[in-house]
Design brief:
With 311 residues, this protein is mostly helical. It has 15 helices and two strands. Strands 1-2 form a two-stranded antiparallel sheet. The longest helix is centred in the first third of the chain and has 22 residues, at 33-54.
Length: 311
Amino acid sequence: MGLYDSRRNFGYGRRPDFAARQALREYYGGGHYATRAAHETRFRAFLAWAKAHHGVRDLADVTDERVARYAAHLREAGYAPSTIHNAISTINVVMRIVTGGRWQAVSPRDLAGVSRSQVRYRPPVSVEWERVLTAVAALQAHSLPRGAAVLALARAFGMRGREAALADLDRLADEARRFGRVNIQEGTKGGRSAHRWVEVTPEGWAAIKLALAARPAGSRNLLRPDERWKAWRDGELKRAREVLKALGIPGFHDARAGYACARYRELTGHEPPVLGGRAPDELDRAARDRIAYELGHGRREITNAYLGSRR
């Protein structure tokens, strides 16, 4: 383990990029591949900037002042607050690991300029199932049945695109039959494994059947046995997203927001704020807690990005 001492890059290696990679692998072990890859990519970008502008060649030369200047550089370059927030969070993660916890974390929220939790002001197009079904038919007409299945699963269960693509469809069908609800597990953000049960509606059953019909032979999910998520995301799924945009649907994430808004209606009997309504405070908070859980988030405040602000 690296020590907070005078050794180059705190003992993790001679090159700072290599040192960061080794530290992340040591910290996360053999799992959380997507999380590690994201941290490595963001930290490499920071190191390239720090070397070019401040001659940084050792992680010991990373300071909170330089991190703040990097955040200012990203703001001036026009990056979204969420992107800046993630970049600073990664620097905190890596520096905390290599220094053995001695790094004094800087505030991603403050350096990003605004709160990371963005408030939705525009209603999602996918709230009403009729729009979703029209899009599903269009995707099928463009020979993109797997993209159609991702859209249907995202709207029916609030799944992220990766979750829908990697879901064990046999397990989902079995749980739907036995329990009337499904547990979202595969492809979750950061490799989270906590239970995340979502009720199965008639539309949800139809989405599962659509996905079962679209999945490739020999696979338990929507990817072929020899296919990797990234290649499919940057190929067929990207083409499906272009079809959705032509139909006025921003992307698959819109279907996730559509699920959240429809779920708010169901739980409260009121429209969510982004659709011009709002439930009484206690009911609103309870619904947001439930929706945050079903979407795989740990904080009620994140629902502002799906439902609009309750203030």
